[in-house]
Design a protein that fits this description.
This protein is mostly helical and 246 residues long. The protein has 11 helices and no strands.
Length: 246
């Protein structure tokens, strides 16, 4: 049961947060002006914090139920994990701070932080998954990391096509074939699930001794997390029509 809980949170993060990471990667392509970039960011504004909860939950389950695996992943990928955390902070700083002042230079600076942080997240996850899936690290891992980052980018574009209107939607749907963004989003989601499952099969998933104590708590929290995520998606199901609070 512990293995399924870890997989549930980890794969949920890849699919859900992979979308907002991909949108951030494609921000310069999607938004050609400050106003357009604000509208693109509005496409992920209601979701990105909720999506990050899945990563926090994954880390908690990993530390609490799989302490040996946590130690191996952190020890063997220290640089990648630190880069991932820095990119996460930079990306979120950009999302929160870009709209706090009206200056063009201020907003351009934080738009750059969003793009750099999103690419940093995608490449860090690509490097970590490449290490787990293929057992490679160092410069040679850059190519598979780029492939996984491209998957994040494609996933984000299809999500943006589902959320945006007009010219922005047309740009985002360049890979979706007109009105096929739902089909393409489902396809990229399945690919991310497969990547996550394959990575899980390569890991030494040996639960620790805390399972009997922690599992009831985790299983109690899962329905609330899923319900909150479903409520957010239902509330913001309509296409974006203007800038958000960010």
């Amino acid at each position: 049961m512990e293995i399924f809980v870890l997989g549930f949170f980890a794969i949920g993060y890849l699919v859900l947060a992979g979308a907002d990471i991909g949108v951030g990667m494609a921000l310069p392509y999607l938004g050609r002006s400050a106003g357009e970039r604000r509208e693109v960011i509005a496409a992920i504004a209601p979701f990105f914090l909720g999506n990050e909860v899945w990563l926090v939950a994954t880390g908690g389950v990993l530390a609490g139920l799989f302490p040996r695996l946590e130690g191996e992943l952190l020890h063997g990928n220290h640089t990648v994990v630190v880069t991932l955390l820095v990119a996460w902070v930079v990306r979120d700083m950009g999302l929160w701070l870009r709209g706090r002042l009206p200056g063009a230079r201020w907003q351009a600076c934080w738009d750059g932080a969003i793009v750099a942080g999103s690419w940093g997240l995608a490449l860090s996850w690509g490097a970590l998954l490449s290490h787990v899936l293929l057992g490679i690290e160092g410069p040679v891992a850059l190519l598979p990391a780029l492939v996984i980052a491209a998957l994040f980018g494609t996933h984000g574009l299809t999500f943006a096509a589902l959320r945006l209107r007009g010219a922005l939607r047309a740009r985002a749907a360049v890979l979706a074939g007109g009105a096929g963004e739902v089909r393409t989003y489902a396809l990229t989601s399945v690919v991310l699930v497969v990547v996550g499952v394959l990575a899980g099969l390569r890991l030494p998933l040996e639960p620790g001794t805390s399972g009997p104590l922690l599992m009831p708590v985790v299983l109690t929290l899962i329905p609330f997390l899923v319900a909150a995520q479903a409520w957010v998606w239902w509330t913001f199901r309509h296409r974006v029509s203007g800038p958000s609070y960010l």
